[in-house]
Specification:
This protein is α/β, with parallel strands linked by helices. The chain has 18 helices and eleven strands. The structure holds NADPH dihydro-nicotinamide-adenine-dinucleotide phosphate and magnesium ion (MG).
């Protein structure tokens, strides 16, 4: 039977690669969504002929509707339109490749409509972890990781019976463009410097998060929710070559790793074809071409965002949501040249001050916390 997918965030780095995987695998595309990239989504509509497309920006959606009036693709608008696409009949799997908290409601809409969810949008699970997991359980659908580290762990866990022998997870980190630098050296770095990632080509927000290592902090929280392990059971190791995508360790100290070239189409495809494996458009890994694999301890002092995320996930409740939203705001300010690199951690940390202690929380609590964390960051900047 032909598989059909919906791609949320289809015009982004992961979205475009997802459509490439879908095309090569012969999947149908039910719906696609973006924020405001009218031209890019128009080209995708003409190529993939989805039943529907949505832009969250209302003016852009209006423009798109006129442009594709000849195609038969229904054009929807706003966050509701994106959620309607996420829940649309026809798709077996929905890949959420939206960036930021904006991907949370569409992820829940997909799951509530009983779609398997291939999740690239780590902010959704970081901010709404228990809500996403509950919805997945209630709907009886699969939650498939797309993030390369989590796909690696997911793949390693296939080789392990569900027992108590799992000791820890080891997340690898490329270390980003500022690996080995001191805080002094990072004082004056710019967004342009931070956008030069050594091993991965990604969207702007995650590239900045990689430079500050907030991305690895998000991944620590993501791993805690996806795999049900405590934060203390998750180690981070810097591995510059991005060939080993992560590892798991058992209580007999046997360690399993997943390796591959650094191309997101491998984890994207596995999430879309699981439990099957399809031939890949990605080139084979040649260990002899790579030659050397290196490993370092992360520098928690220089990259204070790592410690902030560890503290947030250890405190639990709304703390991960709060630091995520504070980071979304700080990351934007840094990209706009309004704050320095070393201010990122400083501003994100202010989120702890506004987070209510609420071990059980609702979706409305997440959005209240989002608002409060963003406002606190802006306030802190004025102080
Ligand atoms: P991009 O910035 O390249 O793409 C983001 C996509 O989301 C675009 O389609 C964009 O539309 C859409 N979008 C942005 N804002 C909104 C909004 N408010 N409502 C609806 N849609 C919106 O990001 P990436 O592809 O790099 O990353 C996507 C997600 O995947 C992130 O959560 C990231 O952390 C995660 N991820 C990415 C990896 C990578 O290699 N890139 C690796 C692992 C995880 P538009 O074009 O109109 O702005
Ligand atoms: Mg990753």
């Amino acid at each position: 039977m032909k598989k059909n997918i919906t791609v949320l965030g289809s015009t982004g780095s992961i979205g475009v690669q997802s459509l490439d995987v879908a095309e090569k695998a012969g999947f149908g595309v039910t719906a696609i969504t973006a924020n405001s990239s009218v031209e890019a989504i128009e080209a995708q509509i003409r190529k993939f002929r989805p039943l529907a497309a949505a832009l969250s920006d209302a003016a852009a959606a209006k423009d798109l509707k006129t442009r594709v009036a000849d195609t038969g693709t229904k054009v929807l608008s706003g966050e509701e339109g994106v959620c309607e696409c996420a829940a649309m009949d026809g798709a077996d799997t929905v890949i959420d490749a939206i960036v930021g908290l904006a991907g949370l409601k569409p992820a829940l809409a997909a799951v509530n409509a009983k779609k398997d969810l291939a999740l690239a949008n780590k902010e959704a699970i970081v901010a709404g972890g228990p809500l996403v997991l509950d919805a997945v359980k209630k709907a009886g659908v699969k939650l498939l990781p797309v993030d390369s580290e989590h796909s690696a762990i997911f793949q390693c866990l296939q080789a392990s019976p569900p027992n108590k022998a799992l000791k820890k997870l080891i997340l690898t980190a490329s270390g980003g463009p500022f690996f080995g630098k001191t805080r002094e050296e990072l004082k004056n770095v710019t967004a342009a410097d931070a956008l030069k990632h050594p091993t991965w080509a990604m969207g702007a927000k995650i590239t900045i998060d990689s430079a500050s290592m907030f991305n690895k902090g998000l991944e620590l929280i993501e791993a805690h929710f996806l795999f049900g392990v405590t934060p203390a059971q998750i180690d981070i190791v810097v591995h510059r070559e991005s060939i080993i995508h992560s590892l798991i360790e058992f209580n007999d100290h046997s360690v399993l790793a997943q390796l591959g070239v650094s191309d997101m189409r491998i984890p994207i495809q596995y999430a879309l074809t699981y439990p099957e494996r399809y031939p890949s458009p990605v080139k084979e890994l040649s260990l002899t071409d790579v030659g050397t694999l290196t490993f370092y301890k992360p520098d928690y002092e220089t990259f204070d965002c790592l410690g902030i995320c560890r503290e947030a996930v250890t405190r639990g409740g709304l703390f991960p949501a709060a630091v995520n939203s504070a980071n979304e705001e700080a990351n934007r300010l840094f990209r706009e040249g309004k704050i320095g690199f070393l201010q990122l951690g400083e501003l994100i940390r202010t989120a702890f001050e506004i987070t209510p202690e609420k071990p059980d929380f609702t979706l409305a609590d997440v959005y209240d916390t989002d608002k409060a964390a963003r406002a606190r960051v802006i306030d802190a900047l004025r102080d």
